[in-house]
């Protein structure tokens, strides 16, 4: 009888190893499906959904044309206000700066050009 049991030990060990690997594989499968469901819920909160055909559908929040143009104009005004061009002298505005300006500021012209224009 011991000889018959000794012949079954490798089979029992093989079934235990296969069962352990099957259990680990099943746990990985369950965890991956749970992770997929949590990811889909998270993306649905951001108006993103997956199409059954393999694509993705993105929902866009409606923005009124007036709000869009206000934002665009705001960015343009900010860019204009933050930009500088220090060597530019217009002949249409800032005429006081070209004539020396308040508090004795120079016109930005070299002394030779300033003397020649008088």
What does this structure look like?
The longest helix has 44 residues, at 2-45. This protein starts with a helix and ends with a helix. With 118 residues, the chain is mainly α. The chain contains 4 helices and 2 strands. The chain has helices at 2-45, 65-82, 95-98, 111-116, and strands spanning 48-50, 56-58. The radius of gyration is 39 Å and the shape is rod-shaped.
Helical region count? Answer: 4
If strands are numbered along the chain, what order do they take across the biggest sheet?
Answer: 1-2
Gyration radius, to the nearest Å?
A: 39 Å
Low-pLDDT parts are 109-118
Number of strands: 2
Share of helical residues: 55-70%
Category by helix and strand content: mainly alpha
Mean pLDDT over all positions: 78
Strand content range: 5-15%
Outline, from the CA principal axes?
Answer: rod-shaped
User: Main β-sheet: number of strands, strand sense, barrel status?
Assistant: 2 strands, antiparallel
Ends distance: 127 Å
The SSE order reads HEEHHH
